[in-house]
Amino acid sequence: MSCYYEVSSSVDLEVIGSSAPLDMKWREQLDPWAPNCLYGLPHSGLLPADARFPDYILSEEGKLTDYTFDASISRYWFISKRFLEVIRQFKLDEHQIFDSPIQANGMMHPYFILYLVHERREFVLWEKSVFYKRPKAIDWKQAAIDKKMPEDNEFEPVSGLTFDEFVKLDNSRLIGRKEVLLDRIVLEYDLLRITWPAHQIIVSQRLKDAIQQAGLTGMDFKPADWIAGFADKAG
Q1: To 5 degrees, how large is the angle CA 29–CA 71–CA 175?
Q2: Averaged in consecutive runs of 10 residues, what is the pLDDT profile of the chain (235 residues)?
Q3: Which residues contact 145 (CB under 8 A, 6 or more apart)?
Q4: What per-residue confidence (pLDDT) applies to 195?
Q5: CB–CB of 3/218 below 8 Å?
Q6: Burial class of residue 2 (count of CB atoms within 10 Å of its CB; 0-12, 13-18, 19+)
Q7: Could you give the CA distance from residue 220 to residue 234 in angstroms, rounded to a whole number?
Q8: DSSP 84
Q9: Which residues, other chains included, contact 136 with Cβ-Cβ below 8 Å and sequence gap of 6+?
């Protein structure tokens, strides 16, 4: 069993209040697509020190939680001061933090955008991992209508893929389940981003436990069961 977890936004409306808890507003003088503004920023690598984000306002039905979200910042963590104080006690992969207060109930509340700099595809032992190739791309919407999801025996296990070969299959929606072997160096971190092949930020068991013990709100955890294990890269 993996000792890491994926983090996702809570969908419990009792907790978050609304499925879209935040509204955003750009200041008139800012171009959202400028190189130092949200939509012009790179997806990996260091962001400019003067990176600019919109103003965030709690929606009418939204509730303030320690971890919140907006579709425009899906590759970032949007966290409270309390959350930031907890994770600073742990080993995070290289990261940047930007002030991004939330306006709610006529007050400004201190919040922060946490950005993990690296995608860490190099931590994946690609040719030692096993992926499950579908015979054809699946129309998930039709499968849900037909109430017939693909069975495990409909997938062909493939291994020895390079990163480029994986991406080609994944872009064609031909990759199903994953049994990913990671470099043992991952175990040195409590928080890191594995964009390929999982498109996930993962947290260690001990960080997950600390988050829950601190009573931080707004997130759900799911075991990162696509992680098959850890090994030495040169082994």
Answers
A1: 135
A2: 85 91 88 93 94 93 90 84 97 96 94 96 94 74 69 76 90 81 96 89 96 96 94 79
A3: none
A4: 86
A5: no
A6: middle
A7: 35
A8: H
A9: 174
